[in-house]
Structure formats: structure tokens, C-alpha cells
Amino acid sequence: MRILTALALVTVLSVSVTPASAKAEVVETQKQNAKSNTTEDKIISASDNFIASSYVPEINPRKLAYFEQWRKKVKLIDYSKFPSGDFTINASAYTAAADECGKSDGITASGKKVAEGRTLACPLGYVFGTKIEIDGMGTYVCEDRGGAIKGNHFDIYMQTKKKAFSFGRRNLIARVVK
Questions:
Q1: What CATH number belongs to 81-177?
Q2: In 19-41, which positions are buried (b, 16+ CB within 10 angstroms) versus exposed (e)?
Q3: Any residues with CB less than 8 A from the CB of 172 and at least 6 apart, and which?
Q4: How far apart are CA 146 and CA 114, in angstroms?
Q5: pLDDT tens-digit readout, 59-94
Q6: pTM of the prediction?
Q7: Disulfide check for 135: which of 29, 54, 105, 173 has CB 3.0–4.6 Å away?
Q8: How far apart are CA 44 and CA 51, in angstroms?
């Protein structure tokens, strides 16, 4: 099919100086050939001196949405995977000290800088950016991970080790904020 289209294109270009009746015959032949083409070869433009073919793919809307999400580097949060309503978390506190994190630059797993009153280390099931409201503490954003952060264990970032040690480990009521 592609060879036939290319031959017709060469024929049209070579007869561009021939009479109009010869041009009409070539264009008519090309139109007949185009009817037998698949979706891979479609005539998209026909004029006196120009015929072009192109590949026209079928676009799956689901794949297109995924591609756009990937291109914009945005993760959509699927709230159906999270607990609905209140749930109990086993909360502890951490700091950005090198002895706890292996580094001391304060950059979380999500790439953001830690901030007291905002940063929360969540289990893998929680997408970065998920907001968790903890009773008596406020609303935190899931921005970090940790080796021991599994199940219902969450780590709340604190500025100093003194605050972190005084916080200890607590069972708190939390909920996912949509």
C-alpha cells in the first residue's frame, strides 16, 4: 500500500506540467486506491501537486488520561483505597537528624523540605500529598516514608529531638481529608 501511494505521489509530481486531463486521471486513480487502504494509509489532502498519507492511530481515552497524568507528574489520589471515616493510628515522632534518617538535609522522600506541623511519614498505601487530620494535632500532609512505617504506624515530624522524645508513641484518632 505504501509503495502504491509513493508511486502515485511520484506520478502526480511528474505530471505537474502535463495537461489538466492527465492530472485528473492520476487523482482519480489515487482516489480509487485510497478506498482499499487501511487506517494506516489515508489520503488527507489532494490537490494539483500534493498528496500525503499519514498514520491515524485510535486513541484510548484511559491511556491518554494516564499519559497526561504522567506528563504533568501529578498523582491522582484514589480515596476509595483509604479508610472512610475515623481510624486509629499508632503515631510516633521523628526529626531530620542524620542518626534517624541517614542524612540531615531535611528533604523528604517526596522531595519536599520537612516542616513541623505539616510533614507526616505514611505507609506505602498513602500517596504523597494525601492529607490526614489527626485529632488534637491538626492536619498533616503525607510527604515522607520510613522503613518502620507500615500498617497503621505514622511518624509525625518534629523540629527537635526533645519534642520527639516527649511525644513518644500514641494511639490517635485520624481521618483522611478529601
A1: 2.40.40.10
A2: eeeebeebbeebeebbeeeeeeb
A3: 88, 89, 91, 134, 135, 136, 137
A4: 14
A5: 777 777 767 766 766 666 777 788 888 999 999 999
A6: 0.56
A7: 173
A8: 8
